[in-house]
Amino acid sequence: NKKAFVELLFWKSPAAVYEMTKGYSSLQEGEGTTRSRVSPWTPQEEQELRELYWKYKEMEGGDIIAAIMAHLPTPGRTRRQVVKQLVRM
């Protein structure tokens, strides 16, 4: 690639650098990205999250997110994922 020097002028993620050095089709689909590690929310999980939010939103002096996380049916979710999903919904 005669214009590869231009790519060196911009910041890269580790996945992009790997592709530049090993070839652009060397990464499998979704590999090297953070999104591939996060499982998407199912409609059932979203409904459960919505119900838990409405149940605990009036809780005074407590951590609403901690209360929701304690009652989520899927324990693999992080606090950040729960907050991000609540904001998105």
TrEMBL record:
Taxonomy, superkingdom: Eukaryota
GO cellular component annotations of the record: replication fork protection complex
InterPro entries per record: Timeless
A GO term, aspect molecular function: DNA binding
Listed Pfam families: HTH_TIMELESS
Biological process per Gene Ontology, one example term: replication fork arrest
Protein name according to UniProt: TIM protein
Lineage, highest ranks first: Eukaryota, Metazoa, Chordata, Craniata, Vertebrata
